[in-house]
Each structure stands twice: as structure tokens, then as C-alpha cells.
Specification:
Oligomer: heterodimer
Number of strands of chain B: 11
Largest interface: A-B, 26 and 26 residues
Distance between the termini of chain A: 41 Å
Order of helices and strands of chain B: EEEEEEEEEEE
Mean pLDDT of chain B: 93
Low-confidence stretches of chain B: none
Shape of chain B: globular
Structural class of chain B: mainly beta
Structural class of chain A: mainly beta
Helix content of chain B: under 10%
Low-confidence stretches of chain A: none
Distance between the termini of chain B: 37 Å
Helix content of chain A: under 10%
Radius of gyration of chain A: 13 Å
Radius of gyration of chain B: 13 Å
Largest sheet of chain B: 7 strands, mixed
Shape of chain A: globular
Number of strands of chain A: 12
Strand content of chain A: over 45%
Chain lengths: 113, 115
Amino acid sequence: AQSVAQPEDQVNVAEGNPLTVKCTYSVSGNPYLFWYVQYPNRGLQFLLKYITGDNLVKGSYGFEAEFNKSQTSFHLKKPSALVSDSALYFCAVRVTGANNLFFGTGTRLTVIP
Amino acid sequence: EAGVVQSPRYKIIEKKQPVAFWCNPISGHNTLYWYLQNLGQGPELLIRYENEEAVDDSQLPKDRFSAERLKGVDSTLKIQPAELGDSAVYLCASSRTGTGQETQYFGPGTRLLVL
């Protein structure tokens, strides 16, 4: 069975500091991994994805994520946080050959001015 | 390029009443998804369409939920009758195809409150 874990419900970081939002996964095949961001009263916005190739993936708004197969992780990172990055972040996994996305429970990021 | 459009954005109804949600996917996207998002949770798939065909509806509570995508473009999700536990956000998403590599793009969602 596929699953995604986001171990932190809440992450607080000071503006200008680096941020990390953690994600680990469990799948029975090769994973396709996605990060989405959700602002209040809005749908999910796509940030980035890992399909194959380079383990470091760069996405929108300066975000990046590193795929680590041995640790089954796909942590989201940004070198310098902005107040406008404050939102709810979701990690999702799709197994090759399947078409459903399995989402984590989300991590609320708060960037403190 | 316009994004995924959903309406209404908000709906308040009394229990046992029917309700319907509408979704217009991104132009050219053959695959359409309906997700349910409960408060504090990630979205969960209800049904997936490839063109007009519902290819995965295993998570759709068929006793009260129904969906259609008659011309392979717009889709409607219906609940009849609604229960208190149906209060949630209903998200529609689309992708160009249903292959695993394709990115799903989400609409703003319909927030349903059942009283």
C-alpha cells in the first residue's frame, strides 16, 4: 500500500532563514513525488515533482526538493524564507503504473517577520 | 491559459438535501479527478475520468454520490441526500493524460457545509 508521511504539523521559521518541510513515503514500486502548496480558501498549487534523473529538483518560487531513495524521503527546501511562503504544504506520491495521488496530511508553514 | 474552474465556491445546505458541484478542466486535459478534502487532511480521490469514462470510482460512496462527464469536458459531482459528515472541500483537478508523470492541476474547490 502507498502512503506518505509529513511528520510535522507545523513548521515555524524566521524570515530570511532556510526552511525545510519533511516528507517520507512508502510505496511498493518506483515513486513519482510531488509537492503542492495551498493558500487559504484556494486550491492546491503545483510546486515541483520528481519523476526520474537528478535527485535535486527545482520548482516554483525558489523551492527545491531532494529525492533520497535510501531514506525514502523527499524534503522540500528553500534557502531564504519569505513571509509570503506561509501556507499549507502537501507532499504526494504516485506509484508507476498507477494514476492516483496519495497525499500527506499537510504541514503548515509560518514564516515570522 | 485558464485554470480549472469550479462552482459554486461555497454551498450551505440542510442535511438530506441534494447538492451538485461543477468543474471545467483546463482545455485539452483528458483526465479529470474529483477529490474530497476534510479539514486538516490531504485530498483523497473520489473518482477519476479518462475522457467520458470513469476509470476509477472505487472510493466514491455510490449510495449517495454520483458523477458524470458526458462530453468528456465538464463534470458534475452530486450528493443526494447530503449528510452532516459530507461537510468538506470538494476539489476538482485535471491533467493532460492519466499517466503517472503528468502533473495534476487543481481548481479552487467548493466548500460544502451541511447543517
